[in-house]
Amino acid sequence: xxxxxxxxxxxxxxxxxLANTYDILDLETNEKIGVAKEKPSGLTLALRFFVNKxxxxxxxxxxxxxxxxxxxxxxxxxxxxxxxxxxxxxxxLGSDKEIGYFKSKLFSFGGGFWLYDTSDKKIAExxxxxxxxxxxxxxxxxxxxxTVTKKWAGLGKELFTSADNYVISINDELGDNRPVKALLxxxxxxxxxxxxxKS
Length: 199
Description:
The chain has about 200 residues and is α+β, with helices and mostly antiparallel strands. Helices cover about 15% and strands about 40% of the residues. It is built from three helices and twelve strands.
């Protein structure tokens, strides 16, 4: 998956979901190339009936080339602990090789967060617009590393479900830089699964 630069992310539709699942598709062929599955603990699932899920710990696994049941090789893992004012979300290649983390902004007009490597060096910013669903992935010099944009799925679907479809695009200039591309892909997924989703 990390050889690609564009991903169409499609949320599974369902009422009263306690954990989210997203298909990751090839933007041109609509072929499923991955899945992102939220996997909170049993206690966390129970607490979601009473507590805003954005305050609770969670884990999201991005699985490459999943089988029909959505199982397969874990490419990227995103983990968030208990959150009070600012979230710190760790990102791993596979299940255990930490490659960096995200830190939410305390105040942000359009939403967003910072990306750091494992040496605490800030490598990018995820910056939202005032409408709340167009994001730019910006490098330290302000150069655009990629974008995350909402994919309109039709009036009825958007009004009557909470399902989100969006496109993650990563600039070609990153080439084969797997850790940075993995962080940017994880950042695109985390906007919805970790930062924005409230129910």
